[in-house]
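Structure request: Acyl-CoA/acyl-ACP dehydrogenase, Streptantibioticus rubrisoli.
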Amino acid sequence: MAFLDMEREELERLLPGLDAALAAQPLMELESPSGPAIELFRKAGGPALLVPTANAGIGASPLQAVRVQRAVGARSPSLAVATTMHHFSVASLVEAAKHGGGFEWLLLEAIANDRKLLASGFAEGRTGQSILRPSITAKRHGDKVVLNGSKKPCSLSRSMDLLTASVSMADDTGVERLAVAIVPADVEGLSVRPFWRNRVLAGAESDEVVLCDVTLDHQMVVLTDVTADSELDSLHVAGFLWFELLVTAGYLGVASALVERALRRDGAPAHTRAGLVVDLEAAVLAVEAVARSMAEDEWTERTLVNALTARYAAQDAIARTAHDAMAALGGMSFIGSDEASYLASAATALAFHPPSRGRMHEQLCAAVDGRPLHIA
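Returned structure:
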């Protein structure tokens, strides 16, 4: 079985035709802000990937989802980033449905049947700020909830049908807690502003989504037991698990596209090619090990620690393989096309996703010492 065959076969089984459709497009077309990648994903039924089969979805396992994201990342880095946010939002909605009032299951069926795309408005992008401190606030007004704030960057900002956002809202006792809001893209008070100014990953549509006095029915906001300083509940453990695995798999796919080009280059020494494969596949195996454990064991803070460990190890492996693959491809490849340099730049962007390694050093040390895990 050739490099990436297993992942591409999984993608073909679950989302027939998507890999061929992406492969038929020039890379830089897929990566442009107005490129076809997102609509190709929607047409192939991609929005239903993590929706349970009981809700008309595909019901992919964590291992299947990881392999799909790697295959997608190898074709279009921007699509891998954008769809990670959709899948993560769907997975969080599945978890919220276990504790909600029932509308979540109807929403999941609509996502699968109508191929709706979910953008993720969970906090990130503010240097030095905890990702458990949302930039969007929610206030109760009778049986309504009013939202204000913005999320930037927010992938799928222009293609989304719904926004799932982490918000801060007071409970009945006045304590500020985290909640998850489901916001229709066409609701009054929601707007999108330009934000992403880098051509790398521009196809992910990561602009700013602004909420100004957006009014929702209270059922569209699910209050959790988590405050910014508390231990994680099951909803947040599940959300972070899915996010870390899927985003890592997507970027491993981007690095895989670069390695695939180096493997095909005539004249690259065998020890160089083998080194690229060994380094990258070791990181992939670590991610897959966590995905397998998600299917077999209870999801706990230890599972999340393992996922973070695999993600940070993958960052190192991606940095090494991107550098070594570029060297193996040589100067003429760099001169003749910007695809390799684009992939190398895109692959290293995994380091910019939350939670950053620098903010998690103490938390990880505390967790392996037996104390509760806190996300910084």
